[in-house]
Amino acid sequence: MLHKSNSLAHYSNVVANRIRPHIWLLPNILTAWWWGVNIGLKNQFYGKTVFRTEPNSIISIGDNCRFNSSHRSNLIGVYSPCMISTIARNSEIYIGNNCGFSGTVMGAALSIKLGNNVRCGANTLITDSDWHSGDPRTGKNAPVVIEDNVWLGYGVKVLKGVHIGENSVIGAGSIVTHDIPANVVAAGNPCKVIRTISE
Ligand SMILES: CC(C)(COP(=O)(O)OP(=O)(O)OC[C@H]1O[C@@H](n2cnc3c(N)ncnc32)[C@H](O)[C@@H]1OP(=O)(O)O)[C@@H](O)C(=O)NCCC(=O)NCCS
Asked: Does residue 2 fall inside a structural domain?
């Protein structure tokens, strides 16, 4: 006879998930402070987020964001901690309020700006450079802007110079190399609009 799922396991996990952000808050806030990251209020951390800053760069995080950095913090599977870094002097990362990240890697050599309510699915990458600045085969760094209410699906890569308009959804596994307008669902490699979101 098959067993049904175990409620005790479920509810103990619910309780553990309520406790975990409190345990992880102080180490993450201290790391943020150590690296000069400006961080707002009521942010939640599941596991240890990695912050790194280059001199004269800015990382600014709003209020009420969630960072899933442990592999169990999101059952869709998180391969690495969230890693938020400036990788060149005078670069900047601005993250608005109510944003969510699962194992998201974000590295700015120039400028990355996220609005409010941006959802970055598991194992997403946001970059404004090719990460090999001295290599003549690479292109120029270019700023990235992701506007309010954008949802990046699992494994999405947003590459340099991209602007994603508000309220748009980017399908799982997409590689975004060009601008995406507001209020659309877009997907694929390279990412293209597949439909408009109507009211
Ligand atoms: C983008 C998405 C929202 C579209 O869902 P939908 O509106 O139900 O669209 P459909 O499944 O009807 O697909 C419409 C078309 O887009 C294509 N498409 C959908 N998702 C795609 C993707 N991720 N990559 C490439 N093409 C995709 C389909 O193949 C289909 O093409 P066709 O018309 O030529 O057959 C959904 O596919 C998706 O990727 N969701 C993200 C899920 C996710 O990552 N969740 C976890 C977050 S951590």
From this structure: no
- The CATH number assigned to the domain holding 132 equals 2.160.10.10
Compute, in angstroms, the gap from residue 172 CA to the centroid of ligand 1: 7
Active site includes 132? yes
Average pLDDT over residues 61-77: 94
For residue 109, the number of C-alpha atoms closer than 13 Å in the C-beta half-sphere is 15
Model-level pTM?
A: 0.95
Q: Number of folded domains in the chain? A: 1
DSSP string, 26-75: HHHHHHHHHTT-EE-SS-EEES--EEE--TT-EEEE-SS-EEE-STTSST
Instruction: Give 3's pLDDT tier (boundaries 50, 70, 90).
Output: confident
Q: How confident is the model at residue 132 (pLDDT cuts 50, 70, 90)?
A: very high
Residue 120 tokens read as: 């970055």
- Overall average pLDDT of the 9-29 stretch: 92
Does residue 171 sit within a domain? yes
- Take atom 33 of ligand 1 and give the residue whose Cα is closest: 194
Q: What range defines the domain where residue 135 resides?
A: 7-196
Does residue 67 lie within any of the structural domains?
A: yes
pLDDT of residue 129: 97
Ligand 1 centroid to Cα of residue 173, in Å, is 10
